[in-house]
Every structure is written in C-alpha cells, then in structure tokens.
Write a structure and sequence with these properties.
The complex is a heterodimer of chains A (273) and B (166).
Chain A lengths: L4 H8 L5 H13 L1 H18 L3 H5 L4 H8 L12 E2 L32 H8 L1 H9 L18 H9 L9 E8 L5 E7 L5 E7 L4 E8 L17 H10 L7 H9 L17
Antiparallel strand pairs in A: 1-5, 2-3, 3-4, 4-5
Chain B lengths: L2 H21 L2 H17 L10 H19 L10 H7 L5 H17 L3 H12 L4 H8 L3 H21 L5
The chains are: A alpha+beta (273), B mainly alpha (166).
Chain lengths: 273, 166
C-alpha cells in the first residue's frame, strides 16, 4: 500500500483518527520502507525537540517575570482622562477623549482615585473652592457642569508663558484656537504624578477642559516619555482645534489682547493658517 | 498575581523559546517576549478561560513579531557555515553532536522561510495540534499542514539525509 507523505506526518504527529493510526501501525510491520519513513520523521521530531533547549533551562530574566506580575489593569477601563465638557453652549468643543493607542504600563493602572487626581486638584479652583462655595462638582467624562477654573501657578502659566518655554512647575506646550475663536492651551504639570491637560480661555478665566496623567508610570521603564502630551489630551485637542496651532507671533498677539476670543471672520490676532 | 498571571509565568520559558525561533538574537527575542506579555495582559479579557493559554499567547507573539518586523529589519543573523553542519552530523562523534547538534538543528530551522519555520516550531517543538497551530497563525489547517510538510522536507534533507543521527 502507498502511504502519502502527509499521512506519514500526521501519523507521527498523532493527528490521524484512531482507525487510521492502527492501519499505519499494522502496515509498518510488513513494509520496511514505510517503517523507515516513519522512523525518519520521529527522528526529526526528536532533533527538533532539542532546538533552543538552553533557553528552557534558564531562569527567565527578572524584567520578564516582573512584566508578567504587573498589576492587572481593571477590565475595559475608560481612557485615563477627566473631561470637563463644559460650559454653556459650547457642546461642539466638547473634548472627546479616546483610548490611547500606546499600551499603557500595566502598573500605572488607576484603581480607585488615581494619584494624579491630587495634582489636578491643586491646579484648579473648582475642586478646592468648589466644596465651600458649593458649585456643581467636577464630573468624569460627562455631565454639563462648568469646567473648573485654573488657579495658582497653572493660571499664571496659561496667562503669561510662551509655549515650549521651560519654566516652573507648569509648562505650556501648545496654543491653538477653536472654531469659535476661543484660545486654548495645553499644559503639563510636573510632580510625583505628573499630569497634562488642556484649558480654554473664557471671558473670566482659564477653564480646564481635560486632564490626564502624563509621564512614566510607577514602574519607570515604560514607553511614555514625560515630555510627551498624552494621547487622550491630543485627542481632546483634535476635537477642538481649528486650523494650525499658534506660532510664537500669534501667541504674543493673543497674549497682548488678553486672550480675548478672536473669531477668524474678524481676522483678529489669529494664526493665518 | 492571579491565576492568569501564574499560568503565564510558567509559560515564560516556552515563550522565550518561541521568540528565539522568530527573532534568533537573544536580546531581540526577550524584547519580543516582553512585548507579548504586555499585550497579553492588556487583552486578557479576550482570552477565553478553558482554552489553551499557550496557543493564544503564541498568536499574540506572532502578531507582535509581524508588527516589529515591519518597523525593524531582522539583523545580525548568523548562517551556519557548511562545515559546522557536517561536523555536527558526524555519527561517530556523539559528544560533538551533543555540543553542536542542537545548534545545527537551530541553524537549519532558522534557514527555513519564516512561514514554514513557525509552523514547524508550533507543531514539532511546542507540540500544538494542527488545529491549535493553525489558529495561532490565523490560517486554514490546510495551509498549516502544507507549510509543515515543506519545512519538514527541507529539514530532513539538511539534518537526516546528510547523515545526522538523532
């Protein structure tokens, strides 16, 4: 009887139905040629079973075991961003945070109230003053409450700092205009749990539209560099920005005008692109 | 650590071995293993308990490798010089084979086209069934068995027909 190669392979791999396994087994007894083919394939399997065997005997590197043991992220956790959708009649500029694309360091997963919320709370008046004056509380990813007002060093940086200028605990990264001419700026605040966010200028104050943790997680050796704006904040900017970000001249002009809205129709101090 | 992670920890040596089959260079292989572990943890809700964690993770590794390979050329590959294979294949020198045999096998394996190499590794090294290996590679079972057959033919020529004894 002629046994095709594929069947010899499947026999050696234990992939044949029982009756075919038995048939080949029986045929081998009377067919030395078949027996040799089977033995050759068994020999190949034995040889291959020793391939890269050294790595099987080693203790895996500490970094790998640590990666396995990293704290599990909560199942289908929402994007690590607080959006303050905001303020009256500006639904169109609502920040739409989405899940960041880069894998998040598993150890940095937020459980309960994440540490970075603390720093966020220090920089906005809404969270601190809010409890006393009893305006609506800050909401997570929804709701119609007014966005919290930037306070202290954050307000100062948003008012006076040029984008990209390295100074103080808060750094402004990018300035841009929305479709309705309102100025917005992204910022990063350093600290033990650094945050990044985006704030937009209302007539009375800077209102923080979204904040998100920034920089490396507790494990330290993961991908997000501290200088990069988190994907969730970039997504919020994408949802609001009209045209290109302001250049230095546009920024200077806007600052001189007290960051008052400059709709494009008036050809005010906006970036011309 | 929960039971998912404990099981993953026991799989680490096999994951590292499969990474060597794909990436060859030890440092690259461990980078690939790390990426695989991170992705598996992020997607753990996609794993169905009761199914094999190993073939699920091999699939993640395979896809991670494809992503990585797009970004970075495979480099530093050492091809076996012909005489090394012959020395390892000398049946009169079992001790030599013991020292060099495995690496002759590894080199012959590494010389296979990647599709065949991975099919051979999943079935003949890792012991997955045809169905599990096909699932890991996201190909029909016929594609898997045909890659396996071609890989076997090449390996048999390189390792057995030329005189090596198991």
């Amino acid at each position: 009887m002629t046994v095709p190669d594929e069947e010899v392979f499947a026999f050696v791999d234990g992939e044949l139905p029982p009756e075919d396994m038995a048939r080949i087994e029986a045929a081998m007894a009377t067919d030395p040629q078949l027996a040799l083919r089977v033995e050759t394939q068994r020999a190949l399997r034995r040889l291959l079973s020793g391939a890269h065997a050294g790595v099987m005997r080693e203790t895996p590197p500490q970094a790998l075991s640590a990666a396995v043991a990293a704290k599990p992220p909560p199942a289908s956790r929402p994007a690590e961003v607080i959006a303050f959708p905001g303020a009256k009649g500006k639904a169109k500029e609502k920040a739409r945070p989405r899940e960041p694309k880069l894998p998040k360091p598993p150890g940095a997963a937020a459980r309960g109230v994440p540490a970075w919320i603390g720093l966020a709370a220090c920089l906005v008046a809404g969270l601190v003053i809010g409890r006393m004056a009893a305006p609506p509380p800050v909401t997570l990813n929804g709701g119609d409450d007014p966005a919290p007002i930037a306070a202290g060093p954050l307000a100062q940086a948003l008012n006076s700092q040029s984008a990209g200028q390295a100074a103080g605990p808060v750094q402004v990264k990018l300035s841009f205009k929305t479709a309705s001419g309102v100025y917005c700026r992204t910022f990063q605040a350093s600290g033990r749990s650094p945050i990044a966010g985006v704030a937009c200028r209302d007539p009375d104050a800077w209102r923080v539209r979204a904040v998100s943790p920034a920089g490396p997680g507790p494990a330290g050796d993961y991908r997000m560099a501290g200088s990069e704006t988190p994907a969730a904040i970039l997504a919020a900017v994408d949802a609001m920005i009209a045209g290109a970000p302001l250049d230095a001249a546009g920024e200077t002009k806007a600052r001189a005008a007290g960051w008052k809205p400059a709709p494009d129709a008036e050809k005010g101090g906006a970036a011309p692109r | 650590m929960d039971s998912f992670q404990t099981e993953m920890l026991t799989l680490l040596p096999r994951l590292r071995r499969m990474a060597r089959v794909l990436a060859w260079e030890p440092a690259d292989a461990d980078d690939l293993t790390q990426l695989t572990v991170e992705r598996a943890l992020l997607r753990r809700d996609q794993w169905r308990p009761g199914t094999r964690l190993d073939s699920w993770m091999f699939r993640i590794m395979r896809n991670a490798w494809i992503d990585e390979a797009r970004a970075r050329q495979r480099h530093g590959r050492v091809l076996a010089p012909p005489e090394a294979g012959a020395a390892a294949a000398d049946p009169s020198a079992p001790s030599l084979e013991a020292r060099l045999g495995a690496s002759a096998v590894e080199r012959a394996l590494d010389a296979l086209p990647e599709d065949q190499r991975v099919a051979v590794a999943l079935v003949l090294i890792e012991g997955l069934s045809y169905q599990e290996a096909a699932d890991s590679l996201e190909v029909p079972i016929g594609t898997l068995t045909s890659r396996l057959a071609r890989g076997r033919a090449t390996l048999q020529t390189a390792l057995i027909d030329q005189g090596a004894q198991p």
